[in-house]
Amino acid sequence: MAGTAVLGRLTWLVAEVAAAIPETERARTLVLDAPGWSSHRAGQHLDVRLTAEDGYQAQRSYSIASAPGEPLAITVERLEDGEVSPYLVDEAAESDGFEIRGPIGGYFVWEPTDRRPVLLVGGGSGVVPLMAMIRERAAAGSDVDMRLLYSSRSWDDVIYRDELGRLAGRGLTVAHTLTRSQPDGWNGYARRVDAEMLTDVGPASGDRPHVYVCGPTPLVEAVAATLVELGHEPQRIKTERFGPTGG
Questions:
Q1: C-alpha distances in angstroms, 39 versus 5, 25, 59, 230, 240?
Q2: What are the pLDDT digits (tens) for 175-204?
């Protein structure tokens, strides 16, 4: 199955940027043409390796944003002190190339054949692998109960904002919380994710949903602990963490 191979056996491939799509002021989606790329599963990630003219190399992991069967894409948020993300967000242009390998990871994945309810909790660019699951659900024509709780700094920082609005409904619930600033007339959540918010968005623990939480470490740890306190089964709570960015 894709993504279960030993990392050392994965081959570095040269990927070419087919399209660069701005998402926010700090985030951009790169659609990649990567001959030899194998199929992936929603929730997996890949490694990117950049090589400078002097031979210096920098490598980072990024979640795959696209659903299986769609053109391969990653969404990257710029880290001001980063080595890789500023290039990918601000400089990489169509036909530029760099190395990738993957897909990687068989733990944080979702399959549309699973009919159990799903709760997705994302902070900042932690929404990326969750979006792959939402897109997979839409592509499969699934009506499974899926609910996204998405924490962002502001409305302008919401990645995939318009697409999430279009996809909401038909069993997909999208709830936003804006932790730093809110637009005039905002009637959504305006604080960090807490127990009341998780209870409101649901599903209830008694429904035994699959739960996927992705974002900065403090958010992920707090949300996972709160979900257990609310009665969710720890083995059904899957988490992914990254550096100090997000909602």
A1: 13, 30, 22, 36, 21
A2: 999 999 999 999 999 999 999 999 999 899
Provide the CA 115 distance to its chain's centre, in angstroms.
Answer: 21
Q: Is it true that the peptide bond before 117 is cis, omega within 30 degrees of 0?
A: no
Antiparallel, parallel or unpaired: β 45-51 and 146-152: unpaired
- Convert 184-208 into a string of H (helix), E (strand) and C (coil): CCCCCECCCCCHHHHHHHCCCHHHC
Q: Answer yes or no: do 184 and 82 share one domain.
A: no
Tell me which residue range forms the domain holding 56.
13-104
What's the whole-model pTM score?
0.93
The percent of residues above 90 in pLDDT, for the chain, comes to 90
Mean pLDDT, the chain, whole residue set: 93
Instruction: Specify whether 92 is located in the same domain as 165.
Output: no
| Element counts in the chain: helices (H) and strands (E) | 5, 11
Q: Looking at the structure, do residues 230 and 130 belong to the same domain, yes or no?
A: yes
With 70 as the cut, is the pLDDT of residue 245 above it? no
Tell me phi and psi for residue 217, to 5 degrees.
-50, -45
Where residue 9 falls among pLDDT bands split at 50, 70, 90? low
Domain total of the chain: 2
- Residue 36 located in a structural domain: yes
